[in-house]
Every structure is written in C-alpha cells, then in structure tokens.
Amino acid sequence: MTPMRLQRALARAGVTSRRKAEALIRAGRVRVDGQLATLGMSVDPARQRVTLDGRAVRPGPVTWLALNKPVGYVVSRKDPEGRRTVFELVPKVPGLTYVGRLDVMTSGLLLLTTDGAAAHRLMHPRFAVPRTYWLRAHGRGVAEVTSALGSPIALDGRPVRVTAFRVRPVARSIELEVTLAEGRQRIVRRLKVEWLHRVAYGPVRLGRLAAGKYRRLAGGEIQAIERLHGTA
After folding, report:
1. Catalytic residues
2. Cα–Cα distance, 19 to 42 (Å, whole number)
3. What's the pTM?
C-alpha cells in the first residue's frame, strides 16, 4: 500500500472523517508503531501499526471502478425526478463516491472509488488532472474549431486549459477529441454537440468497456493514480 497522510489512513479505515482525525492526532490519542503520532506524518497502513486509544486501526479495503456511463443516467445516489442513477449499474459498496460528474446527456468514463481523498484531488482544479472527451458537433468547420481551440478560452471568467485536440470532418459535422486540464466540459457543449463522450480521466482510459458496464481498475492504474498525486 502506498504511504499516505495519517489522517487519510484513519478516514479510509472508517474510523472518522479526515478533519476529526486531525483533532484526534492533536489530542495525542493516535500512535504509530508505539510512538506518539504527529499531524502531517505519512504512514503505510499495511506495514505500520496504527492505534487509536490503544486499539489497532485496520486499513479498510479500497475500491476503484470504471463505469461506461450511458446517456440518460444521473450521476447521483438519488434523483428527485425519478431518473435512473449510475449507482444502479455498480455494486453496492459502502462509501463509494464518483470522481467528476457527467451530465445526464454525456456518456463515457466515470470513475468511482471509496478513497474520498484521492477523489477530491482528482477533481480539484489545482491538480489539473486531464480529461479527454470525444464528440461530434454540427454547424462548425475544421478550420473554425481549430482556430477557436488554439486561442485562449475563458469560461466564467477563468481560462480553460485545452492541452491537446484533434479534429476531422464527418459529412456536415466534425468529430473532435479534446483534452482539458480540468472538468469544465461545458466549453465543448458550446459547439452544438450531437453527442459528448468521455474517453479518459487522468491515467485511466475507457477502452472497449460496453455502455452500462463497469470494471475494477487494474493494479497498475491505481498505482498510476497514487504516483500522480502522492500522499494526501
């Protein structure tokens, strides 16, 4: 297991939230290998003994799933309008949360995990984790889209970081693969898209996973996520 911040290890084990874990550490109630713990230290729960008030803290299992979200499903546990949700398509795992929302009409890769700290870091603009989308848009030409994406773009007063794109004509439409350094896919919605499909999130690619199906992330993919973000 990759070393992580002690408060994250306590939260992952289901002991308490990360914020409350910090209070427990400050109060001197947590020890690592018999030594009084300090706030901000890193631990490897698989190799080191962590105790709270003298009782061993066991590392909880971590789940990572990749789902090919179909159009029409809501990224939420429950929907007030009664629409189907993505949690109907995956196993019932306590603490499972999604990484990066997709709107109801957007399909493609959705990551889900029980590692809330990693999910937060994957989504936060500060870490600029790339997301790649594939789309078809009508009423636009290749030259127009190439010029637009090659120029500085702002959304809600903040610049949008387009890190790569490829565009080709298809009949009276264009097909575009675009990589953004954050999750504001509304910028591509402005192109009057016929469909929008996410094909990659950070080091994880959708591949040939069928719509509505999920798979567990391979060990190499999880390690790539850990290397990307380090300790949290």
Report:
1. 103
2. 16
3. 0.73
